[in-house]
Amino acid sequence: MGVRLRPRGPWSLRTRLVLSAVGLIAVVCAVIGTVTTIAFRSYLYEQVDEQLLGVSHRAAGPPPTAPGPVPGGFDTPLGFVIGPGAPLRTVGALVVDGEVTSASVSAQPGDGPYGPRYLAQPLDAAQTAALASVPRDGDPHTVALPGGLGDYRVQYTSGKRGDFLTGVPLAELQNSLSTLVVVELSVTAAGLVAASLAGTVLVRVALRPLRRVAATAAQVSRLPLHSGEVALDHRVPEAEADPRTEVGQVGAAINHMLDHVHSALDARQRSETRVRQFVADASHELRTPLASIRGYAELIRWAEERGSEEHGPDTRHALGRIESESVRMTGLVEDLLLLARLDNGRPLSYESTDLAPLVVDAVSDARAAGPGHHWRLELPGPADTKVPADGARLHQVLVNLLANARTHTPPGTTVTARLHEAPGHAVVEVEDDGPGIPPELLPSVFERFARGDASRSRADGSAGSTGLGLAIVRAVTLAHGGDVTVDSVPGRTLFSVRIPRTR
Ligand SMILES: Nc1ncnc2c1ncn2[C@@H]1O[C@H](COP(=O)(O)OP(=O)(O)OP(=O)(O)O)[C@@H](O)[C@H]1O
Ligand SMILES: [Mg+2]
Questions:
Q1: What tens digit of pLDDT does each residue of 267-306 get?
Q2: 326 lines ligand 1 (CB under 6 A)
Q3: Which of 143, 236, 277, 436 has the fewest beta carbons under 10 Å from its own?
Q4: Of the residues 191, 222, 253, which one is the last residue of a structural domain?
């Protein structure tokens, strides 16, 4: 069974800074420790070698070529191992004709009346052999003597008293070195622990301003900036926006950016408001001349019907077109005006509105307008279908949805208007089994002026399609705090409008 490990996230800046600092300190400590140990080691070796030289001189006497008599020596050739200047466990071997004839080590069997008493004890065969193996070049060599004696510095020497191998123990030197290494390691470890604790605290304190800058950016990122009046007054605090520090530079840059964004959003909002106002004013102004055009066209038709004026068929056709186009244009202007007003946040006139009669009325109007379709109504039983809403606007929503189901489907299509309840909402659905909304149009069907094949709309005898119907459905629903969704495949198109039951 495979275990899937989660990929490790990147290290935080704090961790990286502390680890780098601690790593650097560790390297520095390692270098200092190594150099100190090497220097101390060679100093100790020099001292031991000097001591060894002293013991060698005393053992062998002056060089064989030196003039004068041999100075007074010890009782036995190997007496020097317990002589003055020879440390405890000094070893010595007498070499005659290149062969070691006897070898001794100084031992301390107990305290005598004048202090510790040293004794020369003979070395065993293995120890003697190890001692004899030392190169006889007069230089000090390190050799390990068996039988618990340990490492030694051993030197071959020859003098007026004969040839000798002398050795002094390295145990003390090795003890000093290992004590030094232990002390270095403990001090380094304690230093590293202290440095990482102090480093963590220091870095945390140093990064605190950066966290405040990030907090400001996070607050701004949560603001709804995409539309409407935006109050963008979040700024990085002055203390964190001082360009003399690195964090301050980031803070200052963010503040500059926020100033820019604020003024850009302000400019966008002002231009949007201007455009909306312009559309609202223009639509409003267009209503009167359009009403006049319609009025005059109707007047001419009325005069003709009364027989006071006679027109040819072309003029009559032209007058009919003027009338129908002005009706269409009035509808368009009304739609534009309504959208502009909803955009400007003009309040709706909320009152307790019963949706059931609204749906019944709208469906019976649609049935009258589209007798070729099958109209069905599904209402809940004795449910409460009242919502706080602007009745006239909701009526328009239903009219638009039912008009779509009528004009964008062929005769014979079944259209069902449904009313039911959902938690906290009343839901109105309009479903038809027509050809469905073209898939390429579906994602943008609620956009303004989004419509299917315009020529098809005209051909099917509708009064021309503008593509504002569903935009109004959405704007009105959103203004009520609700939402509208569409689900469309060939054979089933379902619009559902949800209106909250409370405000
Ligand atoms: N029930 C439906 N069946 C098939 N297509 C639809 C249906 N409802 C909407 N559409 C498609 O969505 C487009 C947009 O509809 P919308 O109501 O916004 O505009 P319109 O009906 O074309 O014009 P308007 O409603 O302003 O007169 C329509 O042109 C049509 O192609
Ligand atoms: Mg429509």
A1: 998 998 898 899 999 999 999 999 999 999 989 888 888 8
A2: no
A3: 277
A4: 222
